[in-house]
Amino acid sequence: MNKGVSIIVCCYNSAKLLPETLKKIKELSVPEDAGIEVIIVDNNSFDNTCSIARNIKEVNGSKFDFRILKQTIQGLSHSRMMGIENAGFDYILLCDDDNHLHKDYVENTLRIMDKYPETAVLGGESIPVSSADFPFWFDKFSNSYACGKQYDEDGDVTDSRGEIWGAGMVIRRSAVKEIISKGFVSILNDRTGDKLFSGGDIELCYALRLAGWNIRYDTSLKLDHFIKPEKLNWNYLIKLSRGFGIQKVYLDAYTRSDKPVPDNAWKDEARQIIGKLRRTGLHKAAGYKFLKEGNPDLIKIEKLLGKLFELYKIKNKYTLNIENIRTAGWNKNSDL
């Protein structure tokens, strides 16, 4: 496979965002010995995303190849996987429709991924920008918007949290293809349309880590993350936090797969969540929706309740999910 980077831009009603995102991509510096391609994946948009993309393609210069794909299965992970499957290069760069890559993003991607062949996932720093003023509480919760620094220091983060945001994430395609060939299938439904439920990027990190690959963070990779004004809203953050709690139920399958768990593992997990709610304060938990804007206890309670309710919803599958990951053929720690 030739040296280069495949940039995947997943779109859902992205007509207003796409022109600026692609403008920044066209300004990227690319080494003479490397190629670059852009793959736009339209995920059932009902605005004029496709026509905007086609118009941009027609006036596009010869700097990079440009393709438009249509993914009819709703969901961000499905769109990203379609892009990965159709990529022509081993290094995949996931650029969301609201990400504005800095000029040296591709150069730094090639440098780092070439230097560390054991790395399957690479991420960097996301700088928040918006046409509206940021609320007083934004800095405290910026990570919920995939903004800011993901780690305190650059380097290998496999043995710490071992996860990277999907916005600006770089993936080694051969690593993903390897685990898929050994039976990897996502157990987590990613964001669909406007639903605030995600986590497919973290799930992929966890799976690749269990397969023996490394995760790396480097702040030389920078992008501006444009946040729509309507998302800079306390109620939006509350819904987002509930979604984070829901996804945690499924990600437990990866973080708890080091040993067998009993069939009633969901009960122990539920008891722990209830205990955390009690420690937050039962009076707060009971009237949590009346807590003031900016109160971190409200965000914490939303995450806990999201996980608790989803845990009860899939209680019969909780242990099964963990067991499936523990014994998966792509899991290097599998004892089967």
Keywords for this structure?
single chain, 336 residues, alpha/beta, nine-stranded mixed sheet, 11 helices, globular
Describe this structure in words.
With 336 residues, the chain is of the alpha/beta class. It is built from eleven helices and nine strands. Strands 1, 2, 3, 4, 5, 6, 7, 8 and 9 form a nine-stranded mixed sheet that branches. Helix 7 packs across helix 10 and helix 7 crosses helix 11. About 2% of the residues have low confidence.
Helix-residue proportion: 25-40%
Principal-axis shape: globular
- Unreliable stretches, pLDDT < 50, 5 or more residues? 190-197
Number of helices: 11
**Euclidean distance between termini CA atoms:** 33 Å
- The H/E string reads EHEHEHEEHEEEHHEHHHHH
Largest sheet: 9 strands, mixed
Q: Structural class from helices and strands?
A: alpha/beta
